[in-house]
# Entry
Amino acid sequence: MILARVIGTSVSTVKHACFDGRIVLVLQPVAGDGRTPKGPAFLGVDSVQAGPGDLVLVAREGNTARQILGNDSDPLHSVILGIVDELSGQAV
# Structure
């Protein structure tokens, strides 16, 4: 799992059927401080009603995404698992 910041939403008129009715957000991986960008942005399916600006916990692995969203045959790769309320301790 990785820490990421929601930086936007995505809109598509043509998409795979597995995305029908799902919200797909643009995610920027961040370092342990919750602010410093760490790698390129990517898309993730929202399962927790996150929105732009939220700090989220993301599973970036297809098998986990399919298990959380409940369909083993869908070609999903990333899913948002939780919204982070607070970071504490030493940042990594």
About this structure: The first helix runs from residue 62 to 69. The chain has a mean pLDDT of 87. The chain is about 10% helix and 35% strand. Residues 2-83 form a domain with the OB fold (Dihydrolipoamide Acetyltransferase, E2P) fold (CATH 2.40.50.220).
